[in-house]
């Protein structure tokens, strides 16, 4: 099965791990003792070449996948990593965006109740993608640091010329299509351009500078007021040294609003024709996988193409959310905390979970959320809760050198049980990284905190969503 078409982008995993993890206490299997020093943000990007080796059937060059705020990011954020409250807010706005996009044109206005709202005063980017990948664009290739997003399709990069009113400040120089020998705007009448309309991404036509060609306009409107528009274009995309996708369609972005990210653009990994995996499906089969590193100083990977041997994965069926063609939906059937299965009627999970690497925190319907929260609080009763107006579950670990955290496991359709990483797949900033999505039966979200250290395989061959533990 090893085929030359089979591309992988592997990753170097830098060794920044929890300083202490050991089995503990009364139930060795169900609780993990974590050193509180592992909760500190690490400022140094280790350049150690010690790697977690990818599976042997993955050969290829290395493209690291980083945490947006991590020290290994090429353009690390100068801002402090977001607080839990901010993460929660971003996460809710994000959820609202995905929901409203799926409902577009359906004449339905509400499906979620109350929990999700967009404050009008929020002008900053609240679209909460968190992980970046570095790819080469153009000829010669220029490195672009792009946010990874399974919740949208069209990839875009800020392009020169663009002034500070129209483009947000980014760390790297703007991509300049005039300096690339392979850049070409996509003509307006082309099928590629017409296909944008059907995904609500079209934005008419514009003439090039000398008025000789009509170019294809694109436009994406995300949650929280973030917008981008520009010229839909063809360009060479270098995924890894020697691994070049000719004629990659992306948006050369000339007008952005509401963004405060320092990255150069966004990489769309959704299920519609504009996304990277779908555009390259003739080359790599349309499947892709990634592993999000557990801590901000770590590195994970993004790989295009399914591994030939998937014996290390557990698969659950996957569909797209409300036939929106973009979002990936799976179904949760149960939750356990500290080895104890919570008693939750199956029915409340009926809305499913959108698998969204651009969303930080997982959202569950009201009953499973309440049961998870109370079981977690009971298991963590030894530690002081920080009082909060919201119903957050945040702990003050000051004075503790280590903390005993219960394992949390999610079970999906098909009996696939996934142990979340402890503590990084469960706690964010000392807070339980779950929130309520709405009433029982409503759709929820599987956020990127919960995906940490798991290889998530989006199998375009109909295999569904695969999970592989301990992948980065
Ligand atoms: C920025 O560029 C746009 C488009 O070229 C132009 O309309 C706008 O006036 C410019 N703004 C400033 C402050 O130069
Ligand atoms: C007009 O611009 C295009 C690129 O945008 C270029 O290929 C073409 O040669 C130009 N034509 C003239 C007459 O300058
Ligand atoms: C797939 O990998 C597993 C180990 O992960 C190995 O035991 C098995 O033999 C492999 N199967 C094939 C067909 O190579
Ligand atoms: C955490 O606990 C310490 C002492 O135990 C206290 O000084 C500090 O104010 C607490 N912090 C919060 C946010 O409650």
UniProtKB/TrEMBL annotation:
Signal peptide: 1-23
Active site residues of this protein: 149, 356
Superkingdom assignment: Eukaryota
UniProt source species: Triticum aestivum
Peptidase A1 domain mapped to chain residues: 131-468
UniProt record, GO biological process: proteolysis
Keywords: Aspartyl protease, Disulfide bond, Hydrolase, Protease, Signal
Protein name per UniProt: Peptidase A1 domain-containing protein
GO molecular function: aspartic-type endopeptidase activity
Listed InterPro entries: Aspartic_peptidase_A1, PEPTIDASE_A1, Peptidase_aspartic_dom_sf, TAXi_C, TAXi_N
Family indicated by similarity: Belongs to the peptidase A1 family.
């Amino acid at each position: 099965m090893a085929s030359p078409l089979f591309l992988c982008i592997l990753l170097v995993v830098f060794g920044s791990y929890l300083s202490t993890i050991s089995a503990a206490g009364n139930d060795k299997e169900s609780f993990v003792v974590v050193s509180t020093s592992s909760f500190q943000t690490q400022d140094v990007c280790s350049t150690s070449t010690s790697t977690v080796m990818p599976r042997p059937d993955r050969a290829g060059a290395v493209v690291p996948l980083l945490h947006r705020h991590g020290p290994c990011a090429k353009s690390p954020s100068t801002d402090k990593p977001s607080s839990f409250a901010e993460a929660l807010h971003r996460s809710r706005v994000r959820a609202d965006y995905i929901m409203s996009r799926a409902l577009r044109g359906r004449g339905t206005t509400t499906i979620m109740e109350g929990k999700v709202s967009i404050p009008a005063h929020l002008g900053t980017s609240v679209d909460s993608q968190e992980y970046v990948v570095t790819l080469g664009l153009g000829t010669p290739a220029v490195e672009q640091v792009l946010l990874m997003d399974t919740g949208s399709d069209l990839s875009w990069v800020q392009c020169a010329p663009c002034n500070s009113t129209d483009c947000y400040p980014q760390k790297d120089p703007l991509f300049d299509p005039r300096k690339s020998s392979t850049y070409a705007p996509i003509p307006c009448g082309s099928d590629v351009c017409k296909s944008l309309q059907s995904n609500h991404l079209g934005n008419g036509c514009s003439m090039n500078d000398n008025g000789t060609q009509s170019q294809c306009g694109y436009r994406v409107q995300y949650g929280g007021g973030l917008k981008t528009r520009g010229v839909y274009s063809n360009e060479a995309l270098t995924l890894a040294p020697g691994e070049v996708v000719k004629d990659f369609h992306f948006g050369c972005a000339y007008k952005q609003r509401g963004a405060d990210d320092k990255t150069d653009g966004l990489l769309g990994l959704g299920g519609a024709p504009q996304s990277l995996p779908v555009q390259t499906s003739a080359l790599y089969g349309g499947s892709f996988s990634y592993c999000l590193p557990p801590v901000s100083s770590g590195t994970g990977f993004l790989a295009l193409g399914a591994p030939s041997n998937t014996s290390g994965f557990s698969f659950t069926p996957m569909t797209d959310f409300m036939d929106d063609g973009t979002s990936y939906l799976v179904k949760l059937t149960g939750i356990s905390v500290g080895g104890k299965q919570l008693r939750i009627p199956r029915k409340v999970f009926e809305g499913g979970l959108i698998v969204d690497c651009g969303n930080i925190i997982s959202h569950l319907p009201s009953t499973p959320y309440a049961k998870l929260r109370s079981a977690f609080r009971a298991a963590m009763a030894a530690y002081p809760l920080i009082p909060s107006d919201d119903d957050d579950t945040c702990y003050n670990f000051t004075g503790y050198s280590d903390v005993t955290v219960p394992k949390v496991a999610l079970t999906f359709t098909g009996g696939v049980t996934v142990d979340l990483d402890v503590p990084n797949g469960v706690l964010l900033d000392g807070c339980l990284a779950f929130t309520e999505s709405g009433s029982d039966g409503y759709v929820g979200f599987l956020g990127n905190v919960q995906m940490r250290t798991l290889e998530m395989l989006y199998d375009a061959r109909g295999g569904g969503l695969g999970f592989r533990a301990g992948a980065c």
